[in-house]
């Protein structure tokens, strides 16, 4: 039995940030190559600190869904997962025993050699009549001066494809470092050019920044060649490599190549199994209230609905029948605003989910990530909490500023954010004697300050929260 965990960056502001990771997780589930596929995020839930608690099996492979090596793959993710590793990840990855689970952490999918094949596939999609004699390829990366590994993989792919002879010319350009894409005509001589963004997902850069920077008018743009009369160059703009279906195959290959990968797999993780068995037991004796929802067992199925919709006729509610349907239903509140923290008291009403007993745990996971596992641990006095001071000390990069936050600054932010949350702040020495396993609907523990709170405390220390508040009035 094997669990696959896909790690994305996520966002506190943009609900679409997680779309690519969700899409690949769904695709890999449909292939059935892993016994479960779970998503985890830096800035969404389940967080990197929670995600390993949510997997069912003791054999876990973690793949960073990033296009290149860098700060997040080498520092943030290993730190937050508790891998005890910092710095470049070996080609075969890193293997650790964490909480009774064998955890294998790989390189990001974007550095796999097969990504060159994905680049070629994108090029042929954009320009089906591609001819190696008169077509140049541009591999476009983001680039950054903060980490040299960010551009290394772009250069490696460009060189690999240059040697393949599949294009008349192959160039590497970047948005934020030299050589910049804005100067492409000074270097590219070919009549036809295919521009392939080496980006993980479709977004602001691929849809707006890149077209605006170089003057693209659509999928095909004709440019006048500088210093000539009547001579032109035609550029074909492809979709980003990170959204190609072949990425699923790259992910599977990464997992198979991971250090110590086992054909036998692992076993059911006992604590996880006990937690969900306890939920099923509670459902067998009657409805179960968790946070803002009510769960009810009925004829071999499980219904989930907002507790405030109890008593409403089914015909008046939108019905979803898959875990993915629940996921998409709960990401926004009734006003259409994004919910980066799932236990905020703003769950939209007007829907119900009817799920098989096999599917309902995943649906509940999408609704309230890690809540079952952490509440069960708290119920048995086994949940380990991380005080704010320890969370602050662990922060690096732009978030290291939170180490300077005063208790009053932390409490000012927490009163606003945590005041609208169902959880009890154990990390701030609040007490929780009973959980929903005892029949207390709001009995949900918070073992550690969430990344939204960390980000807002940083803004408070920087003096930017007050500016944002003034700008909103």
From TrEMBL:
Q: Which UniProt keywords apply?
A: Lyase, Metal-binding
Q: Name one Pfam family in it.
A: CbiX
Please give the Gene3D superfamilies that the UniProt record associates with this protein: 3.30.1360.190, 3.30.70.2320, 3.40.50.1400
Q: Does the keyword Plastid apply?
A: no
**Would you say which domain of life the source belongs to?**
Bacteria
Could you list the residue ranges that cross the membrane? Answer: none
Q: Check the record and name the CDD domains matching this protein.
A: CbiX_SirB_N (cd03416)
**PANTHER family in alphabetical order:** SIROHYDROCHLORIN FERROCHELATASE, CHLOROPLASTIC
Protein name per its UniProtKB record: Cobalamin biosynthesis protein CbiX
């Amino acid at each position: 039995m094997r669990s696959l965990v896909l790690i994305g960056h996520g966002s506190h502001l943009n609900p679409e940030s997680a779309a690519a990771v969700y899409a690949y997780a769904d695709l890999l589930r449909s292939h059935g190559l892993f016994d479960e596929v779970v998503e985890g995020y830096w800035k969404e839930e389940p967080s990197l600190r929670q995600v390993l608690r949510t997997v069912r099996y003791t054999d876990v492979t973690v793949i960073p869904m990033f296009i290149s090596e860098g700060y997040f793959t080498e520092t943030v993710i290993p730190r937050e997962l508790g891998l005890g590793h910092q710095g470049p990840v070996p080609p075969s990855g890193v293997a650790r025993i964490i909480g009774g689970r064998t955890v294998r952490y790989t390189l990001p999918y974007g550095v796999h050699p097969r990504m060159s094949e994905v680049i070629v596939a994108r090029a042929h999609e954009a320009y089906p009549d591609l001819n190696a004699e008169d077509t140049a390829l541009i591999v476009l990366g983001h680039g950054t001066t903060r980490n040299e590994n960010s551009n290394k993989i772009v250069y490696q792919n460009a060189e690999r494809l240059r040697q393949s002879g599949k294009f008349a010319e192959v160039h590497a350009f970047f948005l934020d470092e030299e050589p910049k894409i804005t100067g492409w005509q000074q270097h590219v001589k070919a009549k036809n050019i295919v521009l392939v963004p080496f980006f993980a997902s479709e977004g602001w850069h691929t849809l707006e920044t890149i077209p605006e920077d170089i003057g693209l008018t659509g999928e095909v743009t004709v440019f006048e060649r500088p210093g000539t009369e009547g001579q032109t160059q035609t550029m074909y703009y492809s979709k980003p490599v990170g959204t190609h279906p072949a990425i699923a195959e790259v992910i599977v290959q990464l997992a198979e190549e991971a250090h110590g990968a086992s054909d036998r797999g692992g076993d059911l993780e006992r604590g996880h199994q006990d937690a969900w068995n306890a939920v099923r037991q509670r459902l067998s004796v009657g409805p179960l209230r968790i946070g803002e929802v009510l769960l009810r067992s009925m004829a071999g199925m499980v219904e989930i609905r907002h507790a405030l919709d109890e008593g409403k006729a089914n015909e008046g509610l939108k019905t979803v029948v898959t875990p993915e349907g629940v996921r998409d239903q709960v990401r926004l509140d009734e006003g259409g605003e994004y919910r980066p923290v799932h236990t905020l008291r703003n769950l939209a009403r007007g829907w119900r989910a009817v799920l098989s007993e096999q599917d309902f745990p995943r649906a509940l996971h999408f609704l309230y990530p890690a809540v079952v596992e952490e509440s069960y641990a708290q119920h048995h006095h086994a949940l380990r909490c991380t005080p704010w001071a320890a969370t602050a000390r662990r922060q690096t990069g732009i978030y290291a500023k939170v180490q300077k936050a005063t208790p009053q600054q932390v409490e000012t932010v927490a009163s606003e954010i945590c005041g609208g949350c169902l959880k009890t702040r154990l990390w701030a020495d609040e007490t929780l004697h009973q959980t929903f396993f005892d029949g207390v609907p709001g009995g949900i523990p918070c073992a550690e300050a969430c990344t939204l709170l960390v980000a807002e405390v940083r803004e408070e220390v920087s003096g930017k929260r007050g500016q944002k508040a003034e700008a909103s009035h």
